[in-house]
Amino acid sequence: MNALEELRECPFCGKKAYYSAWEPGQVTTGWRVACSECPVITMPWRSKEAAADGWNARAYDAEIEELSSRLSEIEPLLSLAIGHIVTGEPVGDDLDRLVVRSELALGMSIKPKGA
Ligand SMILES: [Zn+2]
């Protein structure tokens, strides 16, 4: 038997989760995952492994990865902008290039109105 995947924290309150046997008729026929703190509990799964997979899958994981990637693309712009604010040094063409790259990463315009 493979080692069970560790259960992630509750997506709603962040507390520890645990396996709960599903025993509709005195016999364990499935496993659910429940939160130790709030009333969250999953539907029953055939095995603990399936319950862990279901519990641990988070729709927003891919979204966080995507946002993190976009953020890393605009970090140079933020750094340049902060440098400009602090030192007053002109940013020149670098800023234009970074603005274009950042707009592509964000999928929106970040140019000041009237520029
Ligand atoms: Zn919870």
Mean pLDDT: 85
| Overall number of structural domains | 2
Distinct small-molecule ligands in the complex: zinc ion
For the sheet with most strands, the description reads:
2 strands, antiparallel
Query: Gyration radius, to the nearest Å?
Result: 24 Å
Low-confidence stretches: none
Structural class: mainly alpha
Helix content: 40-55%
* Straight-line distance between termini: 64 Å
Instruction: Identify the strand order in the major beta sheet.
Output: 1-2
Count of alpha and pi helical runs? 3
Report the portion of residues in β strands: 5-15%
How many strands?
2
Brief summary:
By secondary structure, this protein is mainly α.
Structure description:
With 115 residues, the chain is mainly α. The protein has two domains: 17-58; 61-106, no CATH class. Helix content is 45%, strand content 10%. The chain is built from three helices and two strands; from the N terminus they run E-E-H-H-H. The chain has a two-stranded antiparallel sheet with strand order 1-2. Strand 1 (17-22) and strand 2 form a beta hairpin. Helix 2 (60-87) runs antiparallel to helix 3 (92-106). The model has no long low-confidence stretch (mean pLDDT 85). It binds zinc ion. The site of zinc ion (ZN) has 8 residues, from loops.
State the main characteristics.
two-stranded antiparallel ribbon; 115 residues; 2 strands; 45% helix; mainly alpha; binds zinc ion; single chain; 2 domains
